[in-house]
């Protein structure tokens, strides 16, 4: 298995939570507000659907809205665009939001923030997910990669592994994001083409590690009884395997560079949502380690933990997003 920060956190580039350089300063984060509750205000939760069930016009409207993010200024005061803000926030928080309890709630709200910006860019449909369990016959041939009704396909060029360095010159050359330039590699400003490097750790593309997200594997994970166990299996297997198998920009902590990131994470969120629904006691089940920091290894996670968004959005508590059917989120699957 080649190195991917999603599978081997110890080798991840050091996460810098503070911005560096003149171009990359951000305003002070707004004060924390609690937004929990208000379930009564969510009377008509939006039902998220699988990408392939959207009609062609809605799919086009979605990818057009993604491209629209590239025309809007950064909300963080960066020299790059609103599109790149998502990458920047995710990359700078790398160690705070992966391989810790907060992985699921943090990405749940992150997807919600993205959906809100797509709506500001004219998208009128619902947020959708990529159910990769439908594609295990040959993930590299999934309809999700269709140039017209999907996200474009594999990068074109020399597919390879490059040790700890991501392979970011295998450019996507078809579909709505063909030859698109993205701004960051990890947290470093480093413009390059959107890259995909389909693989299974040995071959290109091979089976794209489909064993890790087969219906059978997923059923086993969904049956895990406690949050901490569940989160670890979900993050490690299907989540990490998809990042590694697509590779290119999906490999490093700057993975929101690839628009497929958000459909992948909506699917992860959907599985957690289904797991929460399966038993009523799961709704507020939350546990595990709070931080990757070895010195603070004994700290255990709590619903009162604050999730950071580095000034892109208000920080909020884990408790605020445990239930998707409140005024904060208001959706279901
Ligand atoms: Cu992530």
From TrEMBL:
Q: Which PROSITE patterns match?
A: TYROSINASE_1 (PS00497), TYROSINASE_2 (PS00498)
| Residues spanning the signal sequence | 1-16
Q: What is this protein called?
A: Tyrosinase copper-binding domain-containing protein
Keyword Transcription tagged: no
Q: Pfam families in the record, alphabetically?
A: Tyrosinase
Q: Which residues form the Tyrosinase copper-binding domain?
A: 98-115, 258-269
Asked if Metal-binding is a keyword of the record, the answer is yes
What Gene3D superfamilies does this protein map onto?
Di-copper center containing domain from catechol oxidase
Q: Which UniProt keywords apply?
A: Copper, Metal-binding, Signal
């Amino acid at each position: 298995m080649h190195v991917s920060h999603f599978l081997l956190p110890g080798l991840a580039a050091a996460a810098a939570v503070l911005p560096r350089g003149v171009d990359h300063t951000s305003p002070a984060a707004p004060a924390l507000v609690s937004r929990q509750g208000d379930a009564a205000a969510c009377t008509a939760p939006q039902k998220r659907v699988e990408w392939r069930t959207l009609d062609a016009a809605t799919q086009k409207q979605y990818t057009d809205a993604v491209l629209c993010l590239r025309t809007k200024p950064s909300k963080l005061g960066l020299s790059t665009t609103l599109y790149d803000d998502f990458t920047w926030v995710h990359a700078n928080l790398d160690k705070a939001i992966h391989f810790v309890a907060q992985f699921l709630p943090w990405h749940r709200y992150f997807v919600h923030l993205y959906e809100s910006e797509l709506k500001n860019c004219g998208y009128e449909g619902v947020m959708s997910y990529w159910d990769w369990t439908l594609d295990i016959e040959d993930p590299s041939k999934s309809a999700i990669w269709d140039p017209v009704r999907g996200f474009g396909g594999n990068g074109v060029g020399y597919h390879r592994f490059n040790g700890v360095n991501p392979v970011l010159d295998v450019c996507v050359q078809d579909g709505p994001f063909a030859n698109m330039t993205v701004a960051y590699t990890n947290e470093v400003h480093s413009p390059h083409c959107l890259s995909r490097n389909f693989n299974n750790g040995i071959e290109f593309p091979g089976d794209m590690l489909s064993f890790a997200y087969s219906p059978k594997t997923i059923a086993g994970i969904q049956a895990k009884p406690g949050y901490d166990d569940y989160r670890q299996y979900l993050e490690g297997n299907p989540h990490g395997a998809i990042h590694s198998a697509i590779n290119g920009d999906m490999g490093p902590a700057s993975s929101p560079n690839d628009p497929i990131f958000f459909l992948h994470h909506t699917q992860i969120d959907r599985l957690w949502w289904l797991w929460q629904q399966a038993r009523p006691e799961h709704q507020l089940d939350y546990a595990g380690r709070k931080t990757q920091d070895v010195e603070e290894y004994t700290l255990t996670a709590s619903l009162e933990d604050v999730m950071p968004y580095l000034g892109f959005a208000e920080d909020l508590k884990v408790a605020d997003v445990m239930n998707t059917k409140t005024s904060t989120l208001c959706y279901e699957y």
